[in-house]
Amino acid sequence: MRRVKTCLFVATLAAISCGCGRGRVVTGHTVIEQKPVAKDATREELLEAYNLIAHSTKTLNATVVLKPTAGSKYSGVIDEYHEVKAFLLAARSAEIRVIGQAPVIGTTVFDMASDGETFRVSIPSKKKFLVGQVAGERVSSKPIENLRPQHLLDALLWPEIRKEESVTLREFNDENARYYILTVLRGGYQVEILREIWFDRSELRVARMLTFGPKGVLLSDVRLGDWQPTDAATGQRAPATSSTAAASFPRSIRIERPHDDYKLDLQVTKISLNEEIPAERFKVEQPAGAELVRVGDPTENKQP
Q1: H/E element holding 56?
Q2: Do 195 and 131 share a domain, yes or no?
Q3: Rounded mean pLDDT of 25-29?
Q4: Are 201 and 99 in the same domain?
Q5: How confident is the model at residue 44 (pLDDT cuts 50, 70, 90)?
Q6: Element (H, E) at 151
Q7: Same domain, yes or no, for 194 and 247?
Q8: CA angle (88 as vertex; 85, 93 as ends), nearest 5
């Protein structure tokens, strides 16, 4: 009997020690949760990995599934919107266009674009054409109307971390994963946090990005997952090395804008990077018969 118990104990130890990746080992009434091995990296290596993707991604052409949710538990109103298939184009430095279509019938739900200074949104069902300044936009009382094309641009085409910027590195662990966090600081009279970039240490890939405004206001919280190679023909995941990182892209993206009171889930179904995109493809013109609404104008100037 003692020999049998010894064999069981040795077998259990072998199962635990040989396990690689996340899994569960049950021994009697004890459940042992196995977590991925945390990889090590220096501040310089993480900066290089992030900047490689930021620098090498010039344009983006993708098909995505969008699911916006407006409102929050704090406002007491949560409105769920149907999933929308969307075609997304983005190019540096600040060009983006997103065309959303209704499922099955394929009619256009919205067509929106931004050049970094002005955004334009066409809503055919309401026969409205919204125009406003990116820097001077005003928060709407209807959360879903706060969705702006540049919010997606900031999550998809990342700004590079410049050499003159101050960046700190720290670790953070929770029950699900271990992280490295790069914190980019804003200088001046009083130092403030500008951005936080979280790396999941199991793969050393970017898992989360937070952007802050003056006085520590959380502007955006972007979560990234399911990194896959952009070349669908390979059918394999690319390893997280500096030479291949730029050829991969997250397929699951969640954008939360707490002060705009909405979040947006993106599931990327098809993507290609760095293709040449003609400038005219980023233009959205006012449709005939659509009402012009100048967003942020207190007088709400309109024209037929």
Answers
A1: helix 43-56
A2: no
A3: 55
A4: no
A5: very high
A6: helix 149-156
A7: yes
A8: 160
Please say if the pLDDT value at position 75 is more than 70: no
- Number of folded domains that form the chain: 3
Cα 234 to chain centroid, rounded: 24
pLDDT at position 128 over 70: yes
Residue whose tokens read 């996340």: 22
DSSP class of residue 246 equals G
62 and 202, same structural domain?
Answer: no
Is the pLDDT score of 246 beyond 70?
A: no
Predicted TM-score (pTM) of this structure:
0.79
**Do residues 231 and 164 share a domain?**
yes
Q: Is the pLDDT of residue 212 over 90?
A: yes
Which are the contacts of 49, defined by CB distance < 8 A and separation ≥ 6? 41, 199, 204, 240, 242, 245
DSSP for 268-302 reads EEEEEES----GGGG--PPPTTPEEEETT-TT--E
- For 28, residues 6+ apart whose C-beta sits below 8 A from its C-beta are none
Judgement on whether residues 136 and 86 belong to the same structural domain of the protein = yes
| Contact by Cβ (8 Å): 59, 92 | yes
Give the domain extent around 166: 38-56+158-268
What DSSP character marks residue 136?
T
User: What digits encode the pLDDT tens for the residues 48-69?
Assistant: 999 999 999 999 999 999 998 8
Are the C-beta atoms of 179 and 207 separated by less than 8 Å?
A: yes
Write out the H or E segment, with its range, that includes residue 14. Answer: helix 2-18
Q: Are residues 136 and 197 in the same domain?
A: no
Same domain, 99 and 142: yes
Q: What is the mean pLDDT of the chain?
A: 82
Q: What is the mean pLDDT of residues 67-88?
A: 76
